[in-house]
Amino acid sequence: MRLKKLNTSGYRLLPYKCQKIGFIVLLATIAFTLCYANLFFPKLENIDIIRKINFNVTLISLFVIILSENRHEDELTHLIRLRSLSLAFFYGALFVIFSPYWHLLFDGKFEYQIKGEEVIFGMFGMYFFFYYLDKKGR
Amino acid sequence: MKNKLKIERVILNLTQENLATRIGVSRQTINSIETNRYVPSTILAMKISNVFRKNVNEIFELEEDD
């Protein structure tokens, strides 16, 4: 896949069509999640592996969406992207630092093991939240 | 930084969308500049000044706290 160089920021992003593909894959994984959870595959033997793969595909599709250009990519979009990435990073750092104490406070046990997937998924979620919030306010 | 982008745009009878298309940015970017929520880069400021055939300083003006 050819990467396109942006003229002002110097970093490279995937073309806009990758964002569309990412959204399609994301919707497919959500649909699959709903199906295997409730309707079609209630008692498969390898359901944990399927869940794991499905979750990883979800993460990949979110990652592709984040790394893809918008329809109108310009310097303001770069700024919003940068802001959202930094806020997502802060969220990730705070989550890792305070999550064990959060469990101690509300569940009564000290959970010192944090899953990387949870952190990454939360960071992606925060990225999208701040990105679209900032874009919508313009 | 203050700017007279909206005034200049109205004088030329351009919409935000028209101006955005001319300089290759989104309409939201023009709106953000006009409402002082975004300070454009030098390149973008020069592109804007080229459209209005004016000096950059005539459209963008430094404030005391800049």
Give the strand content of chain A.
under 5%
Total domain units of chain A? 2
Look up the CATH topology of chain B. Answer: 434 Repressor (Amino-terminal Domain)
Which shape of chain A, going by the Cα principal axes? flat
Helix percent of chain A reads: over 70%
Radius of gyration computed on alpha carbons of chain B: 11 Å
Number of domains of chain B: 1
Low-confidence stretches of chain B: none
Distance between the termini of chain B: 7 Å
Largest interface: A-B, 9 and 13 residues
- Let me know the CATH homologous superfamily of chain B: lambda repressor-like DNA-binding domains
Distance between the termini of chain A: 32 Å
Major sheet details of chain B: 2 strands, antiparallel
- Alpha carbon gyration radius of chain A: 18 Å
Total beta strands of chain B: 2
Strand order across the largest sheet of chain B: 1-2
Named CATH architecture of chain B: Orthogonal Bundle
Write the layout of secondary structure elements.
The complex is a heterodimer of chains A (138) and B (66).
Chain A: E1 4-5, E2 12-13, H1 16-39, H2 47-66, H3 75-106, H4 116-136
Antiparallel strand pairs in A: 1-2
Helix pairs in contact in A: 1-2, 2-4, 3-4
Chain B: E1 2-3, H1 5-11, H2 16-23, H3 27-34, H4 42-52, H5 56-59, E2 60-61
Antiparallel strand pairs in B: 1-2
Helix pairs in contact in B: 2-3
